[in-house]
Amino acid sequence: MIKLNVNGQTREVDVDPATPILWVVRENLEMTGTKFGCGIAQCGACTVHLDGKPVRSCSTPISAADGKAIATIEGIAGEDGTLHRVQQAWIEAQVPQCGYCQSGQIMSATALLQKNPNPTDAQIDAAMAGNVCRCGMYGRIRAAIKAAAGQPATGEKAV
Amino acid sequence: MSKTETGSPGKMGKWTRRAFIGAGVVAGSALVVGVAVRPGNPIDRLSPMLADGKDEQLLNAWVKVDADNIVTAVIPHVEMGQGVYTALAQMLADEMDADWNKVQILEAPADKQYVSDSIGRDFLFPDLEVPALFEPTVAGGILELAQAMGLQFTGGSYSVRATGQRAMRTAGAAAREMLVAAAASEWQVPAGEITTADSMILHAGSGKAEPFSKFALAAAEQSLPAKPTLKSPENYKIMGQSKARHDIPGKVDGSAIFGIDANVPGMKYAAVKAAPVVGATVESMDATTARTMPGVLQILNMGDFVAVVADGYWQAQQALNSIDTKYSKTEGDSLDQEALFARYATHLDEAGENGGDVETEEGDVGKGFAEAVTKVEAEYKVPFLAHATMEPMNCTAWVRDGKCDVWSGHQAPVNARQAAADAAGLAFEDVTYHNAFLGGGFGRRSESDNIIMATRIAKATGYPVKMIWSREEDTAQDHYRPSATSRFQGGLDKDGKAVSWSNIHTHLFDPKDAPTVPYYNIASHKIRKVDVPTQLRFGPWRSVDHSQHGFFIESFVDEMAHAAGKDGYAFRRELLAGSPRHLKVLDTAAKMSGWGSALPERHGRGIAFVPSFGSIVAQVAEVDMSGPKPKVTKVYVAADPGFVINPDGFTAQMESAIVYGLTAALYGEISIKNGEVQQSNFHDYPMLRINEMPEVEVALINGDHKRLGGGGEPGLPPIAPAVTNAIFAATGTRVRELPLSKHSFA
C-alpha cells in the first residue's frame, strides 16, 4: 500500500511503486481530469503539481509522491466550488477548444502564477512551452494568464 | 428548406402528419421530412432517448421543451472544440425566440434517424438546386442514400452551413409557429396578434403572457406549418452574437468526459501494437516475459495486431513492449519516401501533355501557353501528415449476451455503431454507442479502426475493455494526409496578365474543387490528376485536399506575379477583377497588414487567398528570417463565411486552423522507410508551441447571409503559402517543398 496526499485528502493505493502518477490518478483514484498525451513528458497534458511544482505525471513514478502533496485539476478550485482565478480567466477568454490539453495547461499556469505573480511574455513562454495545444489556443492562453495575473487570488487554497 | 405536407415519395411509403401527431410528436423540418417517409414510426422509438419524463414533450426531432420551460436543442453533430453545440443551438434558439439563458444542449443519440440529409446531399450533389415544390421528394431520397452511407457525420465544415442553416433554423421556426398556433387556439385570438420573446408567448391586446412550456403539449397537436418563416438578419437576436460556448466550463475543471475517460464497472485495459507495415500480419510472437508481468490477464494475437489486456493500462503497455513480434513480408516492405516521390514523378512524366484525368478545362491552354510572352513552370511537393490529436486513439467496448456497448469519441457515431456491430457479429440494433467529447478530431476520428479493434478485443475477452493507443501507435497507425506532387505551367501576356494555367497533380481525395481556381480570371486553364497507388492509408485531414492545393496554387500564383514583375497582392487583385466579394476579402487582409509599408531587413510579408468549404479567406503572414529558422511573427486574416453565427467562435477557428496549418508548414512530415512510418512521438513529429505563436488578427465579413460557409477548415489552406511567399519576399528563396524544417535559409 502506498499512502498519498491528493488534493488535500489521504488516499491509499496498492500499486507497483514504478507506476506513473498519471495512471494511479486516472485508474486507481478514478480522477480522469488529468490526461494522457504522449507518455514521454513531451506534451504536458498530464501536468499535476507535486508540492506545488508542475510535473509530468506520465513520466513520474508514484514513488516520487511519497511524503509529498499531489494536486490535480479536480483540486484547484476553492472548497466552496469557487473557481480558481486561472479557471475563471480561461472561461472569460474562451480558451479551450477540444479541451483535452487544458487540464495540463491550467496546472502549468497556476504553478507559474504561484511562483511569479506577474510573468512577462518570455516567462510565460518558458513556463508554458512544455504544454502542447493541438487546437492552437496559445494566444488565448497567454491572454488568460495575463488577465489572471491581474486578479486577486480567488478560490485558491494552500496545497 | 423542405416541408412535407403531401410528401409521399416513391417506394418509401406514404405518411401523414396525423400519424406523427398521434404519436405525440410533431415533425417540422427538413430532416424530419426524411424520417417521416420511412416506414414505421421512428419518432416513437427516439422519444424515450430524448425525453425520459412524462413532463417532457418532444416537439420535433431537434428541440424539446420541458415543464420548467427549458428548451433543449438536440444537436446531430459532435463537439470536438469547434463550438458546434453552441452555434447550432444559437440558430435554433433564435428562430424559436427562446431565452438563451434557458437553452440546453443534448447531443443526438447514435441513431440512424439523425443522419443528416443535408450533409449527405452536399456530399452527393454539391451544386444541386431544387425547386421548393420537389424538396420533400429530394430530401427523402437523399436521406435514404445518406443512411445507406451511414452518415451522421461531423466534418467538411458542414455543421453550421448545412445542418444549421437548413435544419436547426427550420426546426426552431416550426416549433415557434406551432406554439403560437396552440396559444391562439386556447386564447381564441388570431395567431397574427401573438408574439414570442425569451421563451414566452405574448398577446398584447389581452395582456396574456405564458411560457412555451404551457403550450408544449397542445403544440404537438397542431398541424405542421406549411413553410416556417425564417428571420431575416435584421431580426436576429442570438445569431451573430459571441455567445459563450456551452462546453467550456467542463473543460476547465476536469469534469468534461472524453472517450478515453469512459468508466465501465469491471473494465480492464488493453495496449495494442499493429503490424508496422500496412497489410502485414503477425507471423510469430514471443511473449514469455510478458506472461510473467504483474497485472497481465491476456495476450492476444489478433492477426493484424497484438493486444495485451491487464488490470491497468501502464501494466498492459509495459508487457506489450516486452513482446518480440515477427511480421509477414509484404510488397510494401521496400517502400520509402524517396521512391514514392520518384513514383509520383514517373506517373506525372507518363501523363505528359495530355494524359491523366481532366478535372476542369476551359479555353485552349496549349495555345495560351504557346503564345504566352512569359512562361512560368514549377513543381511542388508536400509530405504525408499525421493528425496527432491530443487524445490518442482509444475505445472502450463490452460484448456480452448478444449485445455490445461501445464508448468513444467519433465524428460519425452511426458509422462507429455500425463498425462495432460488424466487428462483434451483431445487428446494428444490438449495439449501443456512447459518444463523448473528442480530444481533437481533425478528420482522424471519422475513421473506425479503433472501434473495430476494441470491439474485437472485447469479443475475445467477454468483459469490458478500454483500449488505449500509445502516442507511438497513434503516430504510426494514422490515416494520413496524402503526400503529393503538383506541376504547373503558367503563361503571361505582354502586360504581365495571366492567360493560361495548366496543372497536373497526384491524388485527389476530397473535396473535388480543391485543385481548381474558378475564382481567378484566367482565359484558359486545364487541371488534371494522376492516381498513384501507395499502401499507406489516407484519411481526411483538416481542410483535406485544400491543405495541399492551397499551398500549390497560391505558391504558383506568387511565382507568376514575380515573373510578371508585379506585387503578389496587386496581381491577385487583377485575377479577381469583377468579383467584388472576393476582392473585399483580399483587400481587407492587405489593408490590415499595412501591405506595402517598409519592413526591417530579412523580414517579409506574403499573401494568400483560398476560398474553401463555402468561405472566402485571405491571409497575410509576416516572417522574420534574421535568425537560423523562420519565425512567423504576425498573421492577418480576413474571412467571409457569408454570415458569422458566433464571431468569437469563428475567430477561434481561424486562430486554430492557422496553428494547425503552420505546424505542418514548419515541421510536419511523416516519412516512410522500409514500408514503416519513421516518426513516433512529439520529439520527432513536433508541434508548434506557445513561444512560436504568431499574433493573429482576424476580420470577419458577412458577405451573403443566404449562403453560409464553414468555419473549422477554411482558415488552414492559406497559411502555408502566405508564409512561404513571405519567406520569398524576405530572402529571395522560393520554397517548393514542405516542411520548412527541410530547408536552410542561412
Structural features:
heterodimer; A: 159 residues; alpha+beta; DNA polymerase, domain 1; five-stranded mixed β-sheet; 31% helix; B: 746 residues; Aldehyde Oxidoreductase, domain 4; 3 domains; seven-stranded mixed β-sheet
Mean pLDDT of chain A: 94
Q: What is the fourth-level CATH superfamily of the largest domain in chain B?
A: Aldehyde oxidase/xanthine dehydrogenase, molybdopterin binding domain
Counted up, domains of chain A total 2
Structural class category of chain A? alpha+beta
How many β strands of chain A by DSSP?
A: 5
**Spatial order of strands in the largest sheet of chain B:** 10-11-8-18-15-16-17
Instruction: Tell the overall outline of chain A.
Output: globular
Structural class of chain B: alpha+beta
What's the story with the biggest beta sheet of chain A? 5 strands, mixed
Q: Mean pLDDT of chain B, nearest integer?
A: 86
- By CATH reckoning, the class of the largest domain in chain B would read Alpha Beta
Low-confidence segments of chain A, given as residue ranges, are none
What portion of the residues of chain A fall into strands of 2 or more residues?
Answer: 5-15%
Can you count the helices of chain B?
20
Describe this structure in words.
The complex is a heterodimer of chains A (159) and B (746). Chain A has two domains: 2-75, Roll (Ubiquitin-like (UB roll)), CATH 3.10.20.30; 85-149, Orthogonal Bundle (DNA polymerase, domain 1), CATH 1.10.150.120. Chain A is 31% helix and 13% strand. Chain A has five helices and five strands, in the order E-E-H-E-E-E-H-H-H-H. Chain A has a five-stranded mixed sheet, sandwiched between helices. In chain A, strand 3 and strand 4 form a beta hairpin. In chain A, helix 2 (85-92) packs across helix 5. Chain A is globular, with a radius of gyration of 15 Å. The two termini of chain A are 23 Å apart. Chain B is of the alpha+beta class and 746 residues long. Chain B folds into three domains: 10-239, Aldehyde oxidase/xanthine dehydrogenase, molybdopterin binding domain (Aldehyde Oxidoreductase, domain 4, 2-Layer Sandwich); 259-330 and 393-468, Aldehyde Oxidoreductase, domain 4; 337-384 and 480-742, Aldehyde oxidase/xanthine dehydrogenase, molybdopterin binding domain (Aldehyde Oxidoreductase, domain 4), CATH 3.30.365.10. Chain B contains 20 helices and 27 strands. The relative contact order of chain B is 0.10. The interface between A and B is large, with 58 and 63 residues.
